[in-house]
Amino acid sequence: MILDAHIYEKSFGAKELFQNVFISVADREKIGLIGRNGIGKTTLLRILAGRDTDFTGDLHWRRGTRTVVTEQEYSDVPPGTTVVDYILSQVPDFTRLNQLITELPEKMGDSMKLIREYSDALEDYERLGFYDIEDRVRLELLAFQMYDFADRPFVSLSGGQKRLSEVIKIMHSDADLAIVDEPTNFMDYEAKAKFIDWMKSTPTAIIIITHDRDCLDQVDRIVEIKDGASWNYSGSYRDYLRTNATRTGNAMNEYEVAQNKIANLRKQIAYARAKKPSWTGTADKRNPFLVMENRLTKELNKLLAIPKPSFWVDRENVASLSYKEAARYDKYKAKNIRIGLSDASRGKRNLIKVTNLSLGYLESPLFAGINFEVAEGSAVELRGRNGAGKTTLVKAIIAQYQEATQAQANPLDPIQLFDGTIEIGKSIRFGVYEQEVSSDLFDLTLTDAVFKIYQNADRPINETKARSLLSQYLFLPEDLTILVRNLSGGQKARLQIIKMLVNDPNLIILDEPTSHLDLPSIEELETALARYSGAILYISHDNYFRTQLGGQLIQIG
């Protein structure tokens, strides 16, 4: 066993995050760590990585275990550190051994101790494959379309590029255990396939925090963090869904039995209280109805202290429930986001027509000869590698829309139109889900951001409606005053959905919408889009999501 972790309690102020979390990791084992947004997965990662020690529990590591972790903060990285240097510096033992074989020849002389230390370092350096590791890292950067960034300062990278660098670091660490947080969020389909191939073949044990169902299909075990505890499921994501449906059915039955018992106890307590004043026994004997009331009240309080479990079953398994089970699930299921999309009858009117299009920047086109139409009721997928021009095409379509509706001057700047046309239909209303929250919202509170979103769309809103809307998307009262920049990835994703739907769009553009949403929220989004009567133009490297939406495939690059 590499790791045995028992976390009995972890709190933030008055909020108890974990009460009973157990995680063990065996050699070569691949574990998927899942849970609702905000449940504490990243906090758990920090505990396992030794970055958070403010908890009650025990971490038992096998002696000599080499561990590598994806970083979240980079304040300690020196400004001049290149991307290659950063990746190599994070590989376990590389910096130490490289320093030894560089410095020892100059000072070891005839010292047998230093000569042996130098010899051992050379042997370990070769055994760990460090002689050619820089070449392999540069090739990996090429595979992830980051070769041009190899010798740039690491601090100059975007958030997505830093995340990809972290993945390359993990893949070349040769560690016993890798602890990885959302590795595929910024990958294109080829890079993700390469990562999944590595994940399946590597002897490194992995704990991967992800809602990427393609990755979860390759794990040996899933650990779900729910209701402050951990729940183990052997097998892959599909196995998890089947087992979860069975467990949830049993848990709902137990919960309903407990609720019936609570109701009966309350009736019995009421009966005892009603009879208590009429007892006329002798003074040396206790009132039996008082004894009965006290005993039943203690029993009731124990049952009431048990929190309601979270119940969620995926749509496929819900469809297979019996009528009685389905009714019970509908009554007890956990609260999820509610996405309100129009379900009016589908028309055939063209909303976008792209003809022989070539776009790029400065003197360099990214692509040429792109042709497609987006009609009401249709779905069109833009597919291509990172940097092929998918997001550039989306920005150009939005710019043309702004020119048509808002008379903006030179809306394509700095995008260059080399050839072709983008035609925007009449009466079109855009809704756009972008990967990043716009910077003008960063320093606003969540409530003020919603007001600004509605004001920018010239839509009415008041305090009551804003609170109701945020509650619909699972924001808690204590979230309302948090600055947008400090929201979690999942919270920002839900805010993006609110922004996307503000003007009741008949065309939705989605750029990697599943990256930060948890599994129930992803499923709710897929269900809402299946009912949607408008048009959908989307970019996604989530194969489950792509299968659900389908539509015409347009290859970019």
How far apart are the first and last residues' alpha carbons, in Å?
46 Å
Shape by Cα distribution:
flat
Number of strands: 18
Radius of gyration: 29 Å
User: Which percent range fits the helix content?
Assistant: 40-55%
Number of H/I helices: 18
* Beta-strand fraction estimate: 15-25%
Low-confidence stretches: none
As laid out across the biggest beta sheet, the strand order is 6-7-8-4-9-10
Provide the descriptors you would attach to this structure in a database record.
557 residues; alpha/beta; six-stranded mixed sheet; five-stranded parallel sheet; 18 helices; 18 strands; 41% helix; 20% strand
Account of the 3D structure:
The chain is built from 18 helices and 18 strands. The protein is α/β, with parallel strands linked by helices. The protein has a six-stranded mixed beta sheet with strand order 6-7-8-4-9-10, with helices on both faces. A five-stranded parallel beta sheet has the order 15-16-17-13-18. Strands 1, 2, 3 and 5 form a four-stranded antiparallel beta sheet that branches. Helix 2 (83-90) packs across helix 6 (159-171), helix 3 runs antiparallel to helix 4 and helix 9 packs antiparallel against helix 10 (288-304).
